[in-house]
Amino acid sequence: MSIAFLRSLLKSAFGLFALEVLSLSGTAFADDPSAFLRSSVDEVLTIAYSGRGNESLPARVRPTLDKCFAFDLVTRQAIGPGWRQFSPADQKRVTELFAELVVRTYSARVVGTQKPKISYGSPANLSSDRCEIPTRVVPPAGGDPIAVVYRMIRLPVGWRIYDVLIEGVSFVSNYRAQFEELMQKGGEPLIIKTLQAKVAAPAAS
Prior knowledge:
The chain has helices spanning 3-12, 33-50, 57-68, 71-79, 88-107, 171-199; strands at residues 117-120, 124-127, 130-138, 146-155, 158-166, 169-170. The chain is α+β, with helices and mostly antiparallel strands and 205 residues long. β3 and β4 form a beta hairpin.
């Protein structure tokens, strides 16, 4: 992941909102990605800013995000061609580690007590089963809006996210660059070891 991308996340304090979408809240939204997105953003923002319970923020939002993201597809895309070198057991392990890293990384960017304002654009079809929905996020303390685009795929279980673009920068592409470097240096064992080290860091409360 590029330094510029990380700085952008830290500066915007946006973090989790790149992922705060798409919990399956009802069959009425099964064929409507826009309604699904809007409803799910509200649900996750409520969880993120409620401050209730003794669980950490990543632990509170993880069940919802598991229903939002096609983490298996996201992980395969982020790993790239090297995915085929993983055994089925290691594919399962790296998917779990990567999902945990994603949730922790963005949860750590949630600050303050006020929700941001989010506006939604019209979905654009990418194919018969894929679309992208542009949004603009306005920080509660003011500042420039942040452009966030959610790329979604329709699976048998409903719509899920498979990539997020923040100010035009693909989440998946950034991780792929990092994973490709790790694959060249040490293959799949190094990727797993690196992910294990990252998720071992203290989670946001």
